[in-house]
Amino acid sequence: MADMHPLVALVIFIAGVAVVVWATERFLEGLVGVAAMVGASTFAISAVLSGLEAENVAVGVPSGADGLDSLAADGPSELHS
Hints:
Number of strands: 0
């Protein structure tokens, strides 16, 4: 692999990033669906599946307290629509 042409490495890297983005979108769609199905917040379901990390708690707890439950699922753009 040390003799790989830089262009080939770049193409493989971009393809890998595209797969990660696609898989994350599918995961989030499933997460929102599960949360709706069981009647729980998306923050609670994501905490169970991915664990409580400091940055998730720092966004999720204040957002839930302010009634912005969609922030964790849709991102800040949801606030401006």
